[in-house]
Amino acid sequence: MQRRSLLKLAGSTLALGPLAAHAQAFPARPVKLIIAFPAGGPTDITMRQLADNAGKILGQPVIVENKPGAGGTLPAQALQSSAADGYTVAQIPLGVFRMPYTTKINWDPVKDISYVINVTGYAFGLVVPSSSPIKTWADFVAYAKANPGKLTFGSTGTLTSPHLTMEQVAQKLGLELTHVPYKGSADLMQAVLGGHVMAAADSTGFAPQVESGKLRVLNTWGEQRLAKFPDAPTLKELGLDLVQNSPFGIGAPRGTPPEVVKRLHDAFKKAMEEPSYVQALGRYDMLPNYMDSTQYQKFAQDTFSREKALIEKLGLNKPS
Fold first, then answer.
1. Domain range annotation of the chain
2. CATH for 124-220?
3. In this predicted model, what pLDDT tens digit does every residue of 162-201 receive, in sequence order?
4. Does residue 160 contact residue 311 with C-beta atoms inside 8 Å?
5. pTM of the entire structure?
6. Which end of the chain is more exposed for a tag (fewer CB within 10 A), N or C?
7. Sign of the CA dihedral 95, 181, 220, 42?
8. What homologous superfamily does CATH list for 2-121+246-314?
């Protein structure tokens, strides 16, 4: 009787097939997490903490690789040539969903990524040097109207959320601004502090420079004012019906076994709940923003459609 039970158990294990066996063994070596922005910025700092937490849960290190440039879309592109085994995953910023409308690519951001988990979103704002004669948002608008094309602002890349939000603002107010793209927050902060641009549109990686008195916040872009910058009005308060928090998460190559996606999801979800990650986010007024794999896949589809309308409205779509 016992032998028959053992044989039955062995048979049922075999029936699960190689995918289940693979998932049970996963991960047998370190996992690589590619992120879209340079070392030292808010994305890098928060994602490294998340990776450290997830590595302890998975029993293998999660190694962060920075791949900045191209508006934050290089990690998603890297997934297209990576093995679908769960050992390479990538941050998926919102700019990924704009790619087919602005650039010629041979892959689909919705269909060709296995969406694992959404983890957070950015808090954004616009800053100027403390020494700038532009003291308020009203000053910014007045200068831009009086000097068409002369007011320069930097962002973390062409067609990123900071860039496009400023394009929307300019369109609504009839402003002509000059955009200067950088690879990430660290480079952008050096540029605005060095006087290479007059303003910077960024996630709250600018917080340390504001707190040290080097930069001034003109506005922030959430539903409500940020606790760290209570005197800075939101875009909505300034009469612009805009909210931008740019959710992002983690994706794997298309065809990654569902069991492996679930293993990654569960590990990163637990990693998100660790106080160390919540505290890292809090440094930049970011909050956990959890979506499971199914919810994140739907978010990708919905965002893909919405971004098409935005790109067309701003006239930034690629020539047909």
1. 2-121+246-314, 124-220
2. 3.40.190.10
3. 999 999 999 999 999 999 999 989 899 999 999 999 999 9
4. no
5. 0.83
6. C
7. positive
8. Bordetella uptake gene, domain 1 (3.40.190.150)
